[in-house]
Amino acid sequence: MGDSALNRMTALVRQDIRLLLRDPAPLLIRTVMPLVIMGFMQPLFRAALQAGGAGTDVNGAEQGVPGMAVMFLFFMMNVVGFAMFREHGWNTWDRLRAGTARPVELLAARLVVLLAAAVLQLTVIFVAGGLLFGLRVSGSWLALVVVALPLALSVVMLGMALVVLCRTISQLSVVANILALVFAGLGGALTPQSAMPDWAVPFAPFAPSHWAMRGFNEAILHGGGVPDVLLPAGVLCLFAAGLAAVTLVFFRAEDRKLSWS
């Protein structure tokens, strides 16, 4: 990629950073609410882990912190959608298309800030989970990072795929919220995977949240290191790659998106 393309993308990234800093409330809410819920749910998570055979020394944060982090990260699909749909609502998308930036550059530049926000959200929740709720990682913190990065990319790419498949922000919001809740249930974010109902078990591997929780549990509960989380991290990379392919196949720069129903 030449210098001109890099300059164009850098300008777009700077604009997205300014917009994020101007209204950081969505990021703050998605970061604070998991911690608030964790404060109420920690005793239940502790009981569920102990009933599942995790031992008597667990305090519930081992399930609650990664579970709430994963669940609320998937709600970021709405933010991804708004970041794209607002250009149409503000009538600035055609101006961007008329500029020198290529359509792929417009997509790639938008991903940078969204991915950084997703990683920041996960980082704050895990660090605060350790400070506020006594989260103990029996394995490697680096293993958590190896899982968190492809998870964040998968969520952002899922949001981008919904952008190209939905015509209105209302459609995207409904689908995104449903998927976030379904993935939270199937992935073991709401309850330990060992306590999931029998009917849900066969469907769980089709949810990226399942592999994220599997990787986090390996590092937090089972003392796993980087080699132990390569499988879930690799599957998350496949999810991200597949969703990127869907985005590229169905993306049409000339499609008109509506920021209303």
From TrEMBL:
<dbReference type="InterPro" id="IPR047817">
    <property type="entry name" value="ABC2_TM_bact-type"/>
</dbReference>
<keyword id="KW-0813">Transport</keyword>
<feature type="domain" description="ABC transmembrane type-2">
    <location>
        <begin position="25"/>
        <end position="254"/>
    </location>
</feature>
<protein>
    <recommendedName>
        <fullName>Transport permease protein</fullName>
    </recommendedName>
</protein>
<dbReference type="Pfam" id="PF01061">
    <property type="entry name" value="ABC2_membrane"/>
</dbReference>
<keyword id="KW-0812">Transmembrane</keyword>
<dbReference type="GO" id="GO:0046677">
    <property type="term" value="P:response to antibiotic"/>
</dbReference>
<feature type="transmembrane region" description="Helical">
    <location>
        <begin position="27"/>
        <end position="45"/>
    </location>
</feature>
<dbReference type="InterPro" id="IPR000412">
    <property type="entry name" value="ABC_2_transport"/>
</dbReference>
<keyword id="KW-1003">Cell membrane</keyword>
<feature type="transmembrane region" description="Helical">
    <location>
        <begin position="172"/>
        <end position="190"/>
    </location>
</feature>
<keyword id="KW-1133">Transmembrane helix</keyword>
<keyword id="KW-0046">Antibiotic resistance</keyword>
<feature type="transmembrane region" description="Helical">
    <location>
        <begin position="229"/>
        <end position="251"/>
    </location>
</feature>
<feature type="transmembrane region" description="Helical">
    <location>
        <begin position="141"/>
        <end position="165"/>
    </location>
</feature>
<dbReference type="GO" id="GO:0043190">
    <property type="term" value="C:ATP-binding cassette (ABC) transporter complex"/>
</dbReference>
<dbReference type="GO" id="GO:0140359">
    <property type="term" value="F:ABC-type transporter activity"/>
</dbReference>
<feature type="transmembrane region" description="Helical">
    <location>
        <begin position="65"/>
        <end position="85"/>
    </location>
</feature>
<dbReference type="InterPro" id="IPR013525">
    <property type="entry name" value="ABC2_TM"/>
</dbReference>
<dbReference type="InterPro" id="IPR051784">
    <property type="entry name" value="Nod_factor_ABC_transporter"/>
</dbReference>
<keyword id="KW-0472">Membrane</keyword>
<comment type="similarity">
    <text>Belongs to the ABC-2 integral membrane protein family.</text>
</comment>
<feature type="transmembrane region" description="Helical">
    <location>
        <begin position="106"/>
        <end position="135"/>
    </location>
</feature>
